[in-house]
Amino acid sequence: MTILYNVFMQYEHWSMMGIVKINILVAILIFLLSLALFQKLIKYRPLKYIVQRYRRRIVKRYTEALSVSNRWLQFYYYQREISHIIPQILYYLEANPALETIDDAIAYIDSQPVSSELYQNNLSEFRK
Hints:
Layout: H1 2-10, H2 16-41, H3 45-66, E1 76-77, E2 80-81, H4 86-95, H5 102-111, H6 116-127
Antiparallel strand pairs: 1-2
Helix pairs in contact: 4-5, 4-6
């Protein structure tokens, strides 16, 4: 106990701001050292397994969202199969403010000449 008291008494003449600055510097150094240590440890078993388990949990949670295109394999709208034009519908609804409903977008797409190049361009624009 007296050793601890003697250590604290050495800093008695220092200003409070000086002590705070040193504490901030020490906290930054400890943070950087722990960050470097964590980066090294992540390559070894315990942390590697934790990261892999976390990655599996994320993949499991978001698999449905990541494979959303599988839900559109057969999509019907008023007894019409529209799965092949869903990217176009979504693109036109976003890009053309005159089209306010899905029916308007489908009518606009139907009025356009059929072109695989146009379809690919709209698909690539939608995916951006």
